[in-house]
């Protein structure tokens, strides 16, 4: 049997619509197949090492740094499939709050640490 590549385009969206979230937050990655007519099963790729389901939504209820990575998807139907979506990169950051107290002032400092060293924010 031969397989066919459909011109339907798969696309990914994040909810919340931001590529950087904090540990413990909920995030939903949705795979949308443009064009109609076919009942698609969703195939996912993830560099995070997790195995998303074959449904169109992948929900992370309590994100951790291990959920950080690149995600993409495509639709499959028997031997037919769409092109892979563009990659969406998700970064889960650790939020650390330091409280410094001097004689009369309290100073709050916020440190956001991402799972990738080049993205640390101070």
Automatic annotation (TrEMBL):
Gene3D superfamilies named in the record: Immunoglobulins
Q: Where is the Ig-like domain?
A: 10-91
**Top-level lineage group:** Eukaryota
SUPFAM superfamilies xrefs: Immunoglobulin
Q: Which Pfam families match?
A: Ig_3
InterPro entries, per database record: Ig-like_dom, Ig-like_dom_sf, Ig-like_fold, Ig_sub
Q: What is this protein called?
A: Ig-like domain-containing protein
């Amino acid at each position: 049997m031969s397989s066919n590549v459909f011109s339907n385009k798969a696309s990914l969206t994040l909810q919340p619509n931001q590529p950087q979230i904090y540990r413990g937050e909920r995030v939903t990655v949705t795979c949308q197949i443009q064009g109609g007519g076919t009942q698609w099963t969703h195939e996912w790729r993830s560099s995070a090492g997790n195995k998303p389901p074959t449904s169109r939504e992948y929900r992370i209820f309590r994100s951790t740094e291990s959920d950080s990575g690149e995600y993409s998807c495509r639709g499959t139907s028997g031997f037919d499939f769409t092109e892979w979506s563009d990659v969406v990169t998700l970064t889960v950051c650790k939020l650390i709050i330091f409280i410094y107290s001097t004689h009369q002032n309290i100073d709050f400092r916020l440190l956001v640490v991402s799972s990738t060293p080049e993205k640390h924010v101070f």
